[in-house]
Amino acid sequence: MTDSSPTPTPLDASPTPTPLDASPTPTPPVTLSIAGSDSGGGAGLQADLRAFAAFGCFGTTVVTAVTAQNTCGVSDVHVIPTASVERQLAAVLDDLPVVAVKTGMLATTELVGLVADAAADGRLPQLVVDPVLVSATGHRLLEPAAVAAYVERLLPLASVVTPNVPEAEVLTGRRITGLDDARAAARDLAGTGTRVVVVKGGHLDGPRAVDVVLADGEEHLLDAARIDTPNVHGTGCTFAAATAAGLARGDAPADAVAAAKDYVTTCLQRAAGWRLGGGPGPLDHLGITVAG
Ligand SMILES: Nc1ncnc2c1ncn2[C@@H]1O[C@H](COP(=O)(O)OP(=O)(O)O)[C@@H](O)[C@H]1O
Ligand SMILES: Cc1ncc(COP(=O)(O)O)c(N)n1
C-alpha cells in the first residue's frame, strides 16, 4: 500500500540567518545624558542614546523628568525629586569613566543648580549644555525662574552651549531675526564664559539651515541645505548629544560640532518621508555609524 499522506513540512524552513559579527570590540568611551524622558521616543534621553550609539559611545543617563509626550504635544511632566537625580548622578559617576556629558531638559532652578554644583566640583567633563526651554510643540519644559540660574551658574562652566533661536532670545534678551542677530547673541553668550557657543538656525527662515559657532573667539558657520520635512522633533537633542559624543571620542570642539551637524542633517534627510504620529515626527537615527 502506498503512503498518501503529504510530505511533512520541516519544522524550521526559514533561510539560514547571516551570522552577526561577534568579534570583540575595544571598550567604548562613556557619555552621560542628564535629561528628560520623551515617552514618544523622538527627543530627550531616547534621542540622546541613539545619537551616542551612532558615534560608538556607551550612553548612560540621569533622568530629570518623565514627560508624557508624543509628536502632538506634552500632556504631563513629572519632575524627578532632586535627591533621586543626585543619587543617579553619583551612581553613574562613582563607577563609570564618563568622558563627556550632555544636559537637556533640567526642568527646575533646583536641578539647574544641582548640575552646576557637580560641574563646579569638576565632576562633569566636557559639558555640552542644550538649554531646553520649550518643546517643539510649544510646552514649557523649564520653569521661567530657572533661566537666571542657567546664565549665572551653568553656562560659565559649559564647554559648549547649543541654544536654538527662541532659547538664545530668552537667554540674551535679544530679538533674533537673522544671522547678524544670531552672531550678536553668540557673542553675548560667550561673555558668560562658555568656550564654544552654537546658536542653531533651524528656526530662522531661508533655504539654508545655518548655525553660528563662536569657538574661543573665532566665528564660523555650519551651513546645510534646509530639508523640507515636518519631522524635526528631537533635532536639538540629537545635535547636542552628537556633539558630546564627538568630544568623548577625542574630537576638538570645532570638529565635534561639524560632525554633529552632518549627523543631524543625515537623520533629517533619512526621515523626511516618515509618517510617525500626527505632529512633527522623529528623526531617523537607526543604523547609522559615524566614522571617527
Ligand atoms: N529643516 C531642516 N533642515 C536642515 N537642518 C535643520 C532643519 N531644522 C533644523 N535643522 C538643524 O538641526 C539642528 C537643530 O536645530 P534647531 O531646530 O534650531 O534646534 P531645536 O531642535 O533645539 O529647536 C541645527 O543644526 C539646525 O540647523
Ligand atoms: C524630554 C524632552 N527633552 C527635550 C525636548 C525638546 O525637543 P524638541 O525641541 O524637538 O521638542 C522635548 N520635547 N522633550
From TrEMBL:
<protein>
    <submittedName>
        <fullName>Hydroxymethylpyrimidine/phosphomethylpyrimidine kinase</fullName>
    </submittedName>
</protein>
<dbReference type="GO" id="GO:0005829">
    <property type="term" value="C:cytosol"/>
</dbReference>
<dbReference type="GO" id="GO:0008972">
    <property type="term" value="F:phosphomethylpyrimidine kinase activity"/>
</dbReference>
<comment type="function">
    <text>Catalyzes the phosphorylation of hydroxymethylpyrimidine phosphate (HMP-P) to HMP-PP, and of HMP to HMP-P.</text>
</comment>
<keyword id="KW-0547">Nucleotide-binding</keyword>
<keyword id="KW-0784">Thiamine biosynthesis</keyword>
<dbReference type="InterPro" id="IPR004399">
    <property type="entry name" value="HMP/HMP-P_kinase_dom"/>
</dbReference>
<dbReference type="GO" id="GO:0009228">
    <property type="term" value="P:thiamine biosynthetic process"/>
</dbReference>
<dbReference type="GO" id="GO:0009229">
    <property type="term" value="P:thiamine diphosphate biosynthetic process"/>
</dbReference>
<dbReference type="InterPro" id="IPR029056">
    <property type="entry name" value="Ribokinase-like"/>
</dbReference>
<comment type="pathway">
    <text>Cofactor biosynthesis; thiamine diphosphate biosynthesis; 4-amino-2-methyl-5-diphosphomethylpyrimidine from 5-amino-1-(5-phospho-D-ribosyl)imidazole: step 3/3.</text>
</comment>
<feature type="region of interest" description="Disordered">
    <location>
        <begin position="1"/>
        <end position="36"/>
    </location>
</feature>
<dbReference type="GO" id="GO:0005524">
    <property type="term" value="F:ATP binding"/>
</dbReference>
<keyword id="KW-0067">ATP-binding</keyword>
<dbReference type="InterPro" id="IPR013749">
    <property type="entry name" value="PM/HMP-P_kinase-1"/>
</dbReference>
<dbReference type="GO" id="GO:0008902">
    <property type="term" value="F:hydroxymethylpyrimidine kinase activity"/>
</dbReference>
<feature type="domain" description="Pyridoxamine kinase/Phosphomethylpyrimidine kinase">
    <location>
        <begin position="38"/>
        <end position="283"/>
    </location>
</feature>
<keyword id="KW-0808">Transferase</keyword>
<dbReference type="Pfam" id="PF08543">
    <property type="entry name" value="Phos_pyr_kin"/>
</dbReference>
<keyword id="KW-0418">Kinase</keyword>
